Amino acid sequence: MSKKWFLAHLTVPVVVLVLLASSYAMGFRLYPEAFYIGIGIHDFQELSGRFATLAEDKGPAYAYAVLDRASLPRDTDFHLLGHAIGDVLYEKNGIGGIVDCTTDFRNACSHTIVIGAFNELGPEHALGSIREVCERAPGGIGAYTMCFHGVGHGVFAYYDYALKPTIAWCAKTGTAEHGTREYSECVGGAIMELMGGGGHDHAAWLKSRSAYLDPKNPLAPCSNSIMPKEVKDICYTYLTPHLFSVTGADLVRPTPDNFVGAFTLCDKIPNTDSTARKACFYGIGKEFPVLALERDIRKIEYASTPELERMHSWCALAPHEEARSACIQAIVQSLFWGGENDPDVSVRFCMTANDAFGKTNCFDQLYDEVATYLASDHTARARLCASLPTEFVPKCREELKL
C-alpha cells in the first residue's frame, strides 16, 4: 500500500489530525520546552513564572513559539500567559517591542506593550505614545481599537483599581475618527481586569471588588451612576464572570445552570434600555467559545462539530429570542476575531445551528463581520460566499456587494 494511496483514502478529519500530529512532533523537536514546561505545575502563577523565565533566557519570540505548541493543563488561560511573555518583551525592547508582536493569543502581546508604556510614562504623558504604538499593533483594522482594551487593564491597575479616575482617563482616548471606540475598549479592559486580574496589587484588587461588586445588585457597577451612559454597554459585555459567580459557578468550569442564571440576571435590565440588555446577553455568549475549548484559544480555528454544537446548545438556554440572538452574534464575533481567524470556523458554526432562527442570525452576523473587516479584500469575500451551501450564496453575495 503506497503512502499516496493511503493519504488519498483518509477522511478529511483524519488527514487534519495526521498533519497536526506531524506538526506538533516537529514543534517539540525545535522547541523541546513545549513538551515539559507544563509538567508538575501547581498553579497558574508558577506556570506564568516558567514562561517569563523562558522569555528571559531564550527571548520572547522563542517563548511565544513554545506557548503556541506547549502541552499544558486543562483550562489554562493562554491569553494571560501571553501577557507574561509580553512583560519580558517590554522590559527588553520598550514600546518598540510592538513590532515583534503578532495577533496570537488574542492580541496578548500588544496588550502588554501598551500596559507597560502606560505604567512607565504615567497618565499625563502616556496617551500620545500609546496612540502611536496602537497604530502599529499587528492585525487588521480592528487591531488599533482593541489595543486600547489592553490599556484599560493597565490604567485600572495604575489607579489602584479605582474606577472613577480610570474612566476619566479612558474618556480622553476617544477620537471621532474611530467613533470614540478607544474610550469604550479602554473601559472594557478595566472591567475585565476587575473581573479577573489583580496581578499588580492583589490586596487592592480584592478591596476594589468588594467596593464595586454587590451580590445584592449583580448588575453593578454597570447599572450604577459611576458608569457613564456611553460605556455602560461595554461594561455589561465584560461583567459576565461576576454574573456566573452570583449564580454559584466555579469560574473554571461553569455549568448550564449557571448560564441560565446569568441570562436571567441580564433579563432584569429594563426593556427600555435595549442596547444594555443586548450587551449583557452578548457578554454571556462571548464566554462560550473559550469555555467549549477549555480555554485553549489556540484551537479556535480547529473547533470540532461537537464543540460548535455545544456553543449553540448553550445559547439555546436563553430565555427568549432577543437573548439567543445576541448570544449567537457574540460567538460569531469571537470566532471571526476581526478577520484574524480563518472564516471557515465561523461558517461551520453557523451550519451547526439546528433551526432557521439560529442559522439566519448566525450568517447575518457573519456577513456584518466580513463586510467590516474584509471590506478591501474582494477575493476573500467572494471565496467565503462560494464556500456556503447553495441556498445561502445569493444573500451572501448581496450583503457583501459581490
Oligomer: single chain
Number of helices: 22
Mean pLDDT: 89
Uncertain residue segments: 1-21
What overall geometry do the principal axes of the alpha carbons give? globular
**Helix fraction by DSSP (H/I, runs of at least 4):** 55-70%
Largest sheet: none
Structural class call reads mainly alpha
Q: How many E strands?
A: 0
Could you give the order of the helices and strands? Answer: HHHHHHHHHHHHHHHHHHHHHH
Could you give the topology of this structure?
Blueprint: H1 3-8, H2 12-30, H3 33-36, H4 44-58, H5 60-69, H6 78-93, H7 104-121, H8 126-135, H9 143-158, H10 163-171, H11 181-196, H12 202-212, H13 232-237, H14 240-246, H15 256-266, H16 274-292, H17 305-315, H18 321-336, H19 343-351, H20 356-373, H21 378-387, H22 393-399
Helix pairs in contact: 4-5, 4-6, 5-6, 6-7, 7-8, 7-9, 8-9, 9-11, 10-11, 14-15, 15-16, 16-17, 16-18, 18-20, 19-20, 21-22
Describe what this molecule looks like in 3D.
The protein is mainly alpha-helical. It is built from 22 helices and no strands. It has a domain of 193 residues. The longest helix is centred in the first third of the chain and has 19 residues. The termini are far apart.
